[in-house]
């Protein structure tokens, strides 16, 4: 399944009206950097791995070996290095690192459509028609101060997360591609917020200068022209800085460091994420789609998805640990929902938001444990379960961000970061 992409609705005419850089979220973010201090926290960085399409909870991190064959499926559980914690047999590398992460089972919601489920899990707020909530990365960009020479929110290769009511200043910088082994990863193809690439930005500098005088009488707080001054050039210089280029260049990693990540797209994306976090980028999201397995679920998982996930995620966790960065980097892995416990007539599983799992590591999270549970057939949580809002609140907690903090929309409406959220205390030792 192709990863869904989103835009903020700015038309070509709007693009010209704002001096050809209205989408430069990175530029505008610099304007707020002095007010972005977060409360003291264990984590200072985060990697969000999004499994687009909705992975089967039963066939990954919540096996049901005692259920009937039409539910338990073809895979067997394997014991991890954490006592009493089992996961799918086709995740052997992650099984050896279970002491590094916590599994959250019994996550539940009611949005069975990809788009709405994706919005929910990427923002931590149930979608409503009247408001676009900012994604996790936009909030982190606003709340956690970062290196002035580095972007604060990078998406590899793209992300469904939006800046929402926070405005385009907090939009992600999208790489639009993934690195290839032993080849320098050029930053010229990176898009700045709304699709504008560095190369296109270079070609439009003259147009920007010509349009500057058009807005002399505009209101100072206009969201469309906010940042169309030295901050725009500062953002451009940031992307072209030696420090940023070095951070994006995975070819500079030693062979022994790069080898565990493999040569697949997801593994290479995780290698880039490790490098960006090590350089000081505050929030990196890695997209890994293809989990919409309505047919051929077991073949697709065994031959493709699970080996890639196992290799890339295990290498990321091990790499962070080896560099002493796991304690200060929150890793959050999730999809938009789980999949039906009962296998369909196409040997697949369909959408099932009533039960799903998530992985969380670093940032003060206690590894080697399972928090929550689904029932004996994986139909729903055993007990109250956890909502996506609670995952988001717990994620923010690792970074010292108060999920009850209120922002103001452009119309002055007060909105809490994660209104229905609460911290899952069992995650923390």
Task: Describe the fold and architecture.
With 429 residues, the protein is of the alpha/beta class. The protein is 30% helix and 13% strand. The chain has one domain: Alkaline Phosphatase, subunit A (3-Layer(aba) Sandwich), CATH 3.40.720. The strands form 4 sheets. Strands 7-6-5-8-1-9-12-4-13 form a 9-stranded mixed sheet, with helices on both faces.
Descriptive keywords:
15 strands; 14 helices; 429 residues; alpha/beta; disordered N terminus; Alkaline Phosphatase, subunit A; two-stranded antiparallel sheet; globular
CATH class: Alpha Beta
Strand content: 5-15%
CATH topology: Alkaline Phosphatase, subunit A
What characteristic shape results from the CA principal axes?
globular
Radius of gyration: 21 Å
Major beta sheet, specifics?
Answer: 9 strands, mixed
Secondary structure: number of strands: 15
Describe the strand arrangement of the main beta sheet, using strand numbers.
7-6-5-8-1-9-12-4-13
**Kindly state the mean pLDDT as a whole number?**
85
Structure annotation, total helices: 14
Fraction of helical residues: 25-40%
Amino-to-carboxy terminus distance: 37 Å
Q: What are the secondary-structure elements, in order, as H or E? A: HHEHEEHEHHEEEHHHHHHEHEEEEEHEE
């Amino acid at each position: 399944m192709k990863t869904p992409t989103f835009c903020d609705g700015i038309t070509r005419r709007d693009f010209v009206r704002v001096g050809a850089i209205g989408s430069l979220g990175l530029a505008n973010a610099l304007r707020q950097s002095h007010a972005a201090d977060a409360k003291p926290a264990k984590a200072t960085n985060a990697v969000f791995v999004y499994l687009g399409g909705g992975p089967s909870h039963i066939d990954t991190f919540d096996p049901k070996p005692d259920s009937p064959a039409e539910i338990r499926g073809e895979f067997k559980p394997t014991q991890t290095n954490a006592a009493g914690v089992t996961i799918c047999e086709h995740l052997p590398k992650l099984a050896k690192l279970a002491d590094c992460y916590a599994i959250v089972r019994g996550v539940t919601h009611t949005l069975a459509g990809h788009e709405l489920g994706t919005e929910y899990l990427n923002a931590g707020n149930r979608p409503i028609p009247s408001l676009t909530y900012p994604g996790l990365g936009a909030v982190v960009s606003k709340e956690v101060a970062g290196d002035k020479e580095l972007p604060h929110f990078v998406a590899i290769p793209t992300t469904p997360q939006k800046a929402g009511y926070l405005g385009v200043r907090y939009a992600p910088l999208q790489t639009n591609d993934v690195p290839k082994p032993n080849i320098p990863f050029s930053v010229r193809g990176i898009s700045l917020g709304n699709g504008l690439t560095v190369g296109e930005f270079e070609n439009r500098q003259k147009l920007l200068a010509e349009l500057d005088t058009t807005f002399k009488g505009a209101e100072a707080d206009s969201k469309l022209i906010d940042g169309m001054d030295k901050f725009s050039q500062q953002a451009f210089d940031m992307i072209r800085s030696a420090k940023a280029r070095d951070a994006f260049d995975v070819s500079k990693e030693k062979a022994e460091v790069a080898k565990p990540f493999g040569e697949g797209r997801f593994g290479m994306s995780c290698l880039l994420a490790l490098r960006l976090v090590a350089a000081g980028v505050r929030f990196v999201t890695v997209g890994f789609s293809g989990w919409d397995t309505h047919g051929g679920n077991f073949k697709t998982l065994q031959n493709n998805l699970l080996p890639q996930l196992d290799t890339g995620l295990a290498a990321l966790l091990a790499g962070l640990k080896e560099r002493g960065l796991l304690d200060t980097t929150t890793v959050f892995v999730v999809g938009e929902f789980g999949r039906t416990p009962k296998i369909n007539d196409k040997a697949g599983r369909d959408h099932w938001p009533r039960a799903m799992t998530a992985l969380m590591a670093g940032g003060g999270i206690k590894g080697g444990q399972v928090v929550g549970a689904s029932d004996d057939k994986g139909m729903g949580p055993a007990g109250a379960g956890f909502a996506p809002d609670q995952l988001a609140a717990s994620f923010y907690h690792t970074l010292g961000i108060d999920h009850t903090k209120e922002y103001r929309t452009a119309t002055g409406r007060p909105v809490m970061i994660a209104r229905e959220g609460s911290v899952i205390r069992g995650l923390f030792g």
